[in-house]
Recover the amino acids of this structure.
């Protein structure tokens, strides 16, 4: 329930008061680790990171205008794959920022990077966790929005923001077959 509150707080109030962004600009969304975010080890639960990144992603989409474009066209995003690497734990009441940016596209999906950062002893940003999201856009009326149509609406990424080769391999490696019958069984 608290994640729904965080999402609505950002989408309806906070995001609209922040500066607007270009489609490929970095969005910085501030959070604090709450008691409801903790696991039995008294640090932020690994699953909560993904939930909070959802809130940060919506903040980015509202601020860069993509949310309005999606609403007008009857589109909505869904996560197809995600991966995260942890460096340090977030503790109760620690303030942190999620830096979110649209990385680019392959032939089927959109890629987003999230970095969870806090200032180190010298005040420089230190990465606590880094995640990559592979998402698709669907039509409310049914079907997938082709990447070519997305790029017509959102524009192409800056030339110096080429999608890294490893992330394209990752996207292909983690994709499931279109049908259950096509999926090989590894469990016996």
């Amino acid at each position: 329930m608290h994640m729904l509150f965080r999402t609505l707080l950002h989408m309806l109030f906070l995001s609209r008061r922040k500066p607007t962004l270009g489609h490929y600009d970095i969005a910085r969304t501030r959070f604090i680790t709450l008691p409801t975010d903790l696991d039995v080890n008294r640090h932020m639960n690994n699953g909560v990171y993904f939930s909070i990144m959802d809130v940060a992603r919506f903040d980015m989409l509202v601020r860069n205008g993509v949310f309005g474009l999606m609403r007008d066209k009857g589109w909505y995003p869904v996560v197809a794959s995600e991966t995260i690497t942890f460096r340090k734990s977030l503790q109760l009441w620690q303030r942190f920022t999620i830096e979110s940016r649209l990385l680019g596209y392959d032939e089927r999906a959109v890629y987003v990077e999230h970095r969870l950062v806090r200032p180190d002893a010298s005040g420089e940003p230190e990465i606590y966790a880094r995640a990559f999201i592979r998402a698709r856009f669907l039509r409310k009326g049914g079907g997938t929005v082709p990447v070519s149509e997305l790029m017509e609406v959102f524009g192409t990424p800056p030339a110096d923001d080429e999608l890294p080769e490893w992330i394209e391999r990752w996207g292909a490696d983690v994709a499931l077959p279109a049908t259950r019958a096509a999926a090989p069984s590894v469990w016996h």
User: Anything to note?
Assistant: Helices lie at 2-17, 46-63, 66-73, 147-154, 165-174.
